[in-house]
Amino acid sequence: MATSPLDPVLAQRARASRLADLGQRIGYGLFGVALIVFFVGLIGNFTAGISTAIIVCVVIGSIVLAPAIVVSYAVKAAVRDDLEHGREVG
What we know:
Helices cover about 80% and strands about 0% of the residues. The chain is an all-alpha fold. The chain has one domain (about 10-85). The radius of gyration is 19 Å and the shape is rod-shaped.
């Protein structure tokens, strides 16, 4: 089965993949920031502001990262299914 270069399914899959990659970068980045802020507080003065910054980074990072990981696995599964059935993956 031939697909056009502008196959809407492949375009949507590529868009989902880009968003998942961005979400993973943001989520893991926020976890990294939380870790750095934690060690800054551990070495220096661990204030309520540092504690709040860590909690905010971890919560927002989790909210962003969880769906990004799920979408990333979904895109990989769709590509694998297309390859197994001899369809074009783009």
